[in-house]
Amino acid sequence: MYDKKPGIIGHYFHEINRNPNTGTWSWFLHRIAGVVLFLYLFPHFLVTGSYFLTGSTEKFNAWTNFVQTPVFHFLEIFLISAVAFHLLNGLSVTIADFFLMTRKHKAIQWVSIIIFIAVMVLTVVMFVPRVLAH
Amino acid sequence: MDERVSSGGAYGWFLQRITGLFLAFFLIMHLKVLHLTSQWHLDFTVVTDRLHASNWWAVFYILFVPIAVFHGFNGAWGVIEDYRPGIASGKGIKVFLWVVGILLCIYGYLAINALLRKGA
């Protein structure tokens, strides 16, 4: 319990300072990734729905071309990192919760971090040509 | 001081994990088909050809859309809850999230339906 409400951002510094462990960092990054993905949902639905909204295949292609420029492919790397981190960390939390393995949570978390790094190496290798394409 | 809007309790916690497990499957498929793929240029023909290749895509998106939206909005509520909203504002935020979430699901269905039916 807090004596007074910390600020929206101060809240996170407070938690990390008080308990600077793997779990707190995972919680923090899980939240950042979650908020990013939540916000991403809205422009994604707009682009995907551009055919429904306009009835025009040209408009749909204009939007999908716009989001496949090198800048967006570069940003896509961060999008995939958000999905991969949130997904793997979420699975490690769910395994710990459902199989009563909270005492082994740190080990599970390190496994998920290693898989995350492997996924990101693969992603960056796949995305270099897309970012450099014209 | 300790009075707070109902959190939805264990249901919210449990459903977040169940929808999360579904999303692990859906998002790995989604990334594999649309992002981490060797054929990486997407346009209307590529998208609709894929959707028409199998009826399973309709099933896929009928489940994917509401599960993703629920997980996102339930997660957003979890974030808001950390800031301890009062009873009245908490209830207002909950109603707002439900309304926007349901509208987003309906919009998502209409959007995917338009693509599924085109040329089918």
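The CA atoms of residues 1 and 92 of chain A lie 27 Å apart.
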